[in-house]
Design a protein that fits this description.
With about 400 residues, the chain is of the alpha/beta class. It is built from 12 helices and 22 strands. Strands 12, 13, 14, 15, 16, 17, 18, 19, 20, 21 and 22 form an 11-stranded mixed sheet that branches. A hairpin with a 6-residue loop joins β19 and β20. It is globular, with a radius of gyration of 22 Å. GO terms for molecular function: ATP binding; carbamoyl-phosphate synthase (glutamine-hydrolyzing) activity; glutaminase activity. It catalyses: hydrogencarbonate + L-glutamine + 2 ATP + H2O = carbamoyl phosphate + L-glutamate + 2 ADP + phosphate + 2 H(+); L-glutamine + H2O = L-glutamate + NH4(+).
Length: about 400
Amino acid sequence: MTALIPSARLTRDPAVLVLEDGTRYTGRAYGARGETLGEVVFATGMTGYQETITDPSYAGQIVLQTAPHIGNTGVNDEDPESRRIWVAGYVVRDPSRMVSNWRANRSLDDALVEDGIVGISGIDTRAVTRRIRSSGSMRGGVFSGEAAELDADEQLRRVREAPGMAGRNLSAEVSVTEVEVTPATAERIGNLAVLDLGVKKSTIDNLAARGFDVHVFPQSATIDEIRAIEPVAAFYSNGPGDPAASDQHVELLRAVLGDGLPFFGICFGNQLLGRALGFGTYKLPFGHRGINQPVLDKTTGRVEITSQNHGFAVDAPLDQVVDSPNGFGRVEVSHIGLNDNVVEGLRALDIPAFSVQYHPEAASGPHDANYLFDRFREMVLATQALRQAQGPATAAQGQNDAQDSTQEDNNA
């Protein structure tokens, strides 16, 4: 039976979105009332707004939805990607006045109020998006309630004094504080060490479904703590912040790679693998955020439509195999973004490690890249088989053939 839930908090209370360049957009309060500051970014997905706002990668960001009508399916208790809403603020054009979905148990604006998320509705989101595309992501603030009555100059001052995203390490704000274990839901392979930099529930579920006992570690984990569980592999999750400000996580990953553990990283994990291998990272003008980003898999020649959420990227050569500046052997860019030629994946050729910049676990879709979890599983099994047959010292030498075999199976 379809649930019909009124959005009782839709009012005409004034609110304003202020960008650091002085641009102002006047609308209506949405969600909690008050003041919030952050980096203003836009997300292009027409669906999956509940998964978006509960993605820890959006911590510190005011998210604008480019789709004009948001909230019509409400929210439920099954779809959140984490324990709370993480966006710093929320901007929509036309919030639904009625929730109509059999799975919904409350409205989106009710959920925003519960988690204290200040939002704004009723503004020209297309105009804001065009400004960000022209000028780049910038700091902003949403002011409603008493904060909406502040002097315009005071509002702008607060926005300009807010910290930018560059140079920020936000992992500690979103990570678990103690190890959490999710048992394998398929034939067991072994323990997997996951560094929680902002991990999503669907990622854990996908890894458990591939036979891993998933041990989610706090972002402060040490190599000795990871070694203590005798892992068969390691994984770095997505997460918010600037990869250049995560030296601790890079050093940990170098130790993981030095131990010969198979490694898979997504999103922030891709950027940190790039740094661990010796490449740099840089901030994109307005980033990639949405569920319709085309990516070329250079190995298979296939184009995948992917879910993405990142404002930084790896600086590595797109069309050649190069030696890792940090001594981890040969490396190639495995995936390329077709919109702007951004590095979307890395593959190490002499150690068992690869990563992608996008989200193969995307719960709300698309699912084109979900096979990467199978590729990871097969890489771990192949590495285990090589070590049993040849010993640890020579196992890494054969991992490239194992990855090639896995990719051929995926093509078939």
